Amino acid sequence: MKKILILGVAPVQAEAIEKLNDMGYETYAIAMKKDGPGADAAQHFEEINIIDEQAVSQYIKDNQIDAVYSVGSDLAMPVANKLSEALDLPHFVSYETAYACNHKDEMRQRTKGITGSVPFEITQNADYQTEIDYPVFVKPTDGQGQRGISLVETKEALPNAIRKAIENSREGSAIIERYIDGYEISVNGYVVDGKLQFTLVSMRETWPQHPGLIHKHVIDPEAKFPMASIEAAIQAHLETLQIDNGPVYAQVKVMNDEAFIIEITPRFDGCHMHKLIQYYNEDDLLDKTFKHLLENQKPSFSKEGEVQPVVLEFMCETPNQTIDYNQFKTPEGTVESYRYYNQGDMIRPVNGVYDKVGFYIYPLKKEEI
Q1: For the chain: N or C, fewer Cβ within 10 A?
Q2: pLDDT tens sequence across 328-356
Q3: In this structure, how many other beta carbons lie within 10 angstroms of the beta carbon of residue 208?
């Protein structure tokens, strides 16, 4: 029986661990603390900081691990790929690629000027004045999730936004990006031998009071998107960043039917989209990914046919307070729901502003569009 190590124990990693358990693998998980459901889902758990490469490497050797992987975490992917390369374990992309996708400055530098790229500037100086027209987004260059991100509309507000981004950057750097004035979508894809073999676009609704923070993902087969532009932008980024195999997630904005890549990474998203996709067309992307990674079985995908339009809606709340789930109303027709905490638990800060505390999946009603 192959032994698989998952880095992290958050709900998204717990789903991967549970899938591996179902597939008959022996599961291991590590995290700095036993503070997520993946710790109990795994057959073996130990408290190890996932970015402590020496400790993780020793754990892999001591336990004769056959593969190390993660989902939903940019922080984990560079470590997983670096150690997989060093220890000759299976992996989809190089450490260099995983590192670039975890560092917005590196990703932007590499993809500068290609199809779908966004104008940007990088600074470590809070008094820096941008030459990009306002509004702009200011982000940590190496941030995880939505930490430290600000939408800035005036030059007077820029210094505080840069400081906030730098405070949330391990490298002390901020990236300033042109604000794309269009609608936002998520693209979940799968790459085989350098080519997109699966592409699914979902509408992405953010909280109006918190720009950029996700509220809902909606998959609607009747929605029309400029697919040629979307796929061209993603394919250009795949080739430039050398994402040749495995899952890929992109956050995209569309302006005047032109797609711009906001984020792209060679992993599953952190929003449980594989679940939504399975409700939509029955494609089990987690299963296909692990068979590809662990057994070298290249996946095939469902052709567009019988589908179920669906919504994934997040429950969110301000962190650093106790959670009261009684405030949320379960949407009609909910087919699956999940709570990240027990009632009354303290909400841990992730983005530090308005954090996910659970989700619902339910059929799309046309009046919601």
Answers
A1: N
A2: 999 999 999 999 999 999 999 988 899 99
A3: 8
Residue 94's pLDDT band, with cuts at 50, 70 and 90, is: very high
- The overall longest dimension of the chain from CA atoms, in Å, is 59
**DSSP of 187-236, one letter per residue?**
EEEEEETTEEEEEEEEEEEE-TTSTT-EEEEEE-TT----HHHHHHHHHH
CATH topology of domain 119-178: Dna Ligase; domain 1 (3.30.1490)
The 10s digit of each residue's pLDDT in 34-64 is: 989 999 999 999 999 999 999 999 999 999 9
Q: Report whether 84 contacts 67 (CB < 8 A).
A: yes
Q: Which amino acid appears at position 304 of this protein?
A: E
Average pLDDT value for residue range 150-172: 93
For the chain, the domains span 3-91, 119-178, 183-363
pTM value?
0.88
In the block, residue with structure tokens 């530090």: 352
| Cβ neighbours of residue 123 closer than 8 Å, sequence gap 6 or more | 162, 173, 174, 176
- Distance CA(309)–CA(317), nearest Å, equals 27
Q: Which CATH number fits domain 3-91: 3.40.50.300, 3.40.50.20, 3.30.428.10, 3.40.1280.10?
A: 3.40.50.20
User: Is omega for the bond preceding 140 within 30 degrees of 0, making it cis?
Assistant: no
